[in-house]
Design a protein that fits this description.
Oligomer: heterodimer
Radius of gyration of chain B: 31 Å
Number of helices of chain A: 11
Shape of chain A: globular
Strand content of chain A: under 5%
Number of domains of chain A: 1
Largest sheet of chain B: 7 strands, antiparallel
Order of helices and strands of chain A: HHHHHHHHHHH
Number of domains of chain B: 3
Radius of gyration of chain A: 21 Å
CATH architecture of the largest domain in chain B: 2-Layer Sandwich
Largest sheet of chain A: none
Helix content of chain B: 25-40%
Largest interface: A-B, 33 and 42 residues
Number of strands of chain A: 0
CATH superfamily of the largest domain in chain B: ATP-grasp fold, B domain
Chain lengths: 221, 492
């Protein structure tokens, strides 16, 4: 049975789907399922489903240490630049655009500083640029939430997103897991089924248990 | 306050998953949600049913309209809100204007210039505060003149009452009071105080607000009194004015919008009376904390009930979910509330007293008892006492030929002192008591009889006598009413 499935994977690879693409698609399936679990069973907030998926995959390319360092710089820069820019009376989109320009400059500066001082991040220049850009887009999610709601909400959501992304990174970077799924692609439809079932889950989220722990006082009339 | 175990929570509390799956999606159609999600549309629909909403001064749909806005035509106080806003985002309340300047004052004292307001409106138009990513409309509308009673509990903004209705039954309600932190809005997430309301009476019960400095979102802190006021006031026990009218309006809103599960926000205006602020198709679940009661239990209770109309819905709600105030009083005063006439169980003499609590089938009789603080010792009608096994004791008591009446209390006491030991010997009579009944002084037997009152079993000392009102064969006296409050409004 297992051999058939390996052959099936081989057949896919032989028919124009590179192994890297296949691995990436598997990662998307795994991380999106983790996001579903985090949302509907745990109750953690994330910036939608796109941000944690892209972040987890980016981390798998950058390595967690580098990924988190870039995330930290991106968020800190966004926060500072927005805090300054909000004092200026300006339109909404221009504010976000200005934030991106400042972020780009700071990231260049960050590269230079790392190159000069090391800071334990000596391999920074080997990071694929696309992964780098993916993390930078987190700025948009962060600022958007900050503007629409509040700094507290945005920070809480950011932490949720990063935690889910780390969980996703952990799972997709385990060779044993990715190899197993690569050779057992039947797991993918199973994940679809799991997500469908999770979509109909009506029980309390772990966060609800915490949120309403003082709620019931009576009602057993 | 002790927390509940997760199993109990699961049964009683409504979580986000179930709210969406079981109530919002099946009972709120897309077209009904479209009404609730659009404040202008909501106003139009409610107007048809003569339900009052805040008067709209201006609607700004484009930047061009904003450019030509006649600022002089705006009153000193007004509210700006996005048409499709969520969770109170983008709502700005102005309650005053600086003389001779185009500057308006917000509840927390900060000033916004005309330029600031233009930028805020532009942000609204760009959809910064709205659901989805599209553009939005800015509404400039009247600021409600809050009813004086509720005004004294609120920090500058407008308090409102949220009533959650399902299947044409008001399920749960809360009063939302703006605080300094919420900056005039009554939104729980912004920092407003939420106070549970007893559906039966419209009296406030428990209160809470979101913890200000908690990193974990949606964590609550239970509070007793208002915040930020010069003199903070207790929050429980406030009678919401026009309570029945508010319930009726909430149900009317449900009917006219077609939302099966809905949260209706109503404010009380000094001149206009109840004014509906908003109709919410996905009302938040924090109301459960404010009421310290679960929504799930209540929703399931009314799910299959056929409600004939608004009045019927209110009656159902009051009888099913009312009565929280009594428990609230109990929580505050540590005392239970008893009705002036209560149904109690009187246990048979032969019932095993050690097992009364364990065995529901212990021989007992359900009777009405009258709470009478005018008598000291409780009394039981002798015929009822005979029925529950004291017949032979009465017989023994009568055997001694005790005089039907005594000339004075001293005579009665002398008689008791002389004969009590002999009379109560080998019987269940605990002692003899002298009583004044219909102007006559009598000596009667006293028994210890177990009763169950308000879910408590207690051995109570009863004087057995003739009680004229046979429908209430038990009178509970002052001695046994210690620790209770008597509610004289409810009788059977």
């Amino acid at each position: 049975m297992n051999n058939d499935l390996v052959a099936f994977t081989q057949w896919i690879v032989d028919h124009g789907v590179s192994q890297t693409v296949l691995e990436l698609l598997i990662s998307v399936c795994i991380v999106s399922t983790i996001v579903s679990i985090a949302r509907y069973i745990v109750g953690s907030k994330t910036y939608g489903i796109y941000a944690p998926i892209i972040l987890a995959i980016a981390y798998s390319y950058t390595g967690l240490k580098y990924g988190l360092a870039i995330t930290f710089v991106v968020i800190l820069t966004s926060l500072l630049s927005y805090s300054v820019l909000r004092r200026v009376r300006m339109h909404y989109i221009t504010r976000i655009a200005a934030n991106y320009t400042i972020l780009s400059m700071v990231l260049v500066l960050f590269f230079v500083i790392v190159d000069t001082f090391g800071l334990g991040l000596e391999n920074m220049s080997n990071i694929p640029p696309l992964a780098f850009i993916c993390i930078a887009t987190l700025s948009d999610f962060f600022i958007r939430q900050y503007i629409k709601k509040s700094i507290k909400t945005s920070v809480v959501t950011l932490l949720g997103t990063i935690l889910v992304a780390i969980a996703g990174w952990f799972v997709i970077t385990r060779d044993i897991i990715s190899n197993y799924i690569l050779n057992n692609l039947w797991i993918i439809p199973l994940l679809t089924l799991f997500n469908i079932l999770l979509g109909t889950f009506k029980g309390l989220r772990i966060k609800d248990l915490f949120r309403f722990r003082f709620t019931t006082r009576e009602d057993e009339k | 306050m002790k927390s509940n175990n997760p199993i109990k929570l699961k049964k009683e509390v409504l979580g986000l998953n179930r709210r969406n799956q079981e109530y919002v999606r099946p009972f709120n159609s897309q077209s009904a949600k479209a009404i609730a999600d659009n404040k202008i549309y909501t106003k139009r629909v409610l107007k048809k049913e003569l339900i009052q909403t805040p008067e709209v001064y201006k609607l700004i749909r484009t930047k061009k309209q904003l450019e030509f806005l006649d600022w002089d035509s705006l009153p000193k106080s007004f509210v700006i809100k996005p048409n499709a806003g969520t969770g109170g985002n983008g709502i700005i309340v102005f309650y005053g204007k600086k003389k001779g300047k185009y500057e308006w004052i917000r509840p927390n004292g900060t000033v916004m210039t005309q330029r600031d307001i233009i930028l805020h409106i532009e942000s609204i138009l760009e959809g910064r505060f709205s659901m989805g990513f599209g553009n939005d409309i800015a509404i400039i509308e009247e600021r409600i003149k809050t009813d004086p009673l509720l005004k004294q509990y609120s920090y500058k903004g407008v308090p409102d009452v949220r009533i959650i209705c399902f299947n044409l039954v008001p399920i749960m309600a809360m009063l939302r009071l703006p605080t300094k932190r919420s900056n005039g809005t009554a939104n729980l997430h912004a920092g407003a105080i939420c106070t549970g309301i007893d559906i039966g009476t419209g009296i406030t019960t428990y209160s809470m607000h979101m913890k200000p400095n908690s990193l974990i979102s949606d964590t609550y802190e239970v509070i007793d009194s208002t915040l930020d006021l010069k003199e903070n006031k207790p929050l429980s026990g406030i009678q919401i004015p026009q309570w029945n009218t508010l319930l009726e309006i909430a149900l009317k809103c449900q009917k006219v919008t077609g939302l099966g599960y809905v949260g209706v926000d109503i404010a009380l205006d000094t001149d206009k009376g109840p004014v509906v602020f908003e109709v919410n198709a996905r009302p938040g679940l924090g109301i459960q904390v404010a009421n310290q009661a679960g929504l799930r239990w209540r929703l399931e209770k009314v799910k299959d009930v056929k409600i004939k109309g608004i009045k019927h819905g209110i009656r159902v709600a009051k009888s099913l979910f009312g009565g929280e105030v009594e428990e609230s009083i109990e929580a505050i005063s540590g005392r239970k509330v008893l009705n002036i006439v209560e149904r109690i169980y009187v246990y048979d003499k032969k019932a095993d007293r050690s097992k009364l609590e364990k065995y529901k089938d212990s021989k007992r009789e359900l009777v009405k008892a009258y709470m009478d603080t005018g008598v000291l010792t409780s009394r039981i009608d002798s015929k009822l006492a005979n029925r529950i096994g004291y017949f032979n004791d009465h017989k023994q008591f009568e055997k001694y030929g005790i005089p039907k009446k005594f000339e004075s209390l001293k005579d009665a006491q002398d008689f008791i002192d002389k004969n009590e030991k002999e009379i109560i010997k080998n019987s269940s009579i605990k002692r003899l008591a002298k009583i004044v009944e219909n102007g006559e002084i009598k000596v009667r037997p006293v028994f210890d009889i177990p009763i169950k009152i308000e879910d408590q079993i207690k051995i109570t000392e009863f004087i057995s006598t003739e009680i004229s009102d046979i429908s209430q064969p038990v009178i509970i006296g002052k001695t046994d009413l210690t620790g209770y409050l008597i509610d004289t409004t409810n009788t059977f």
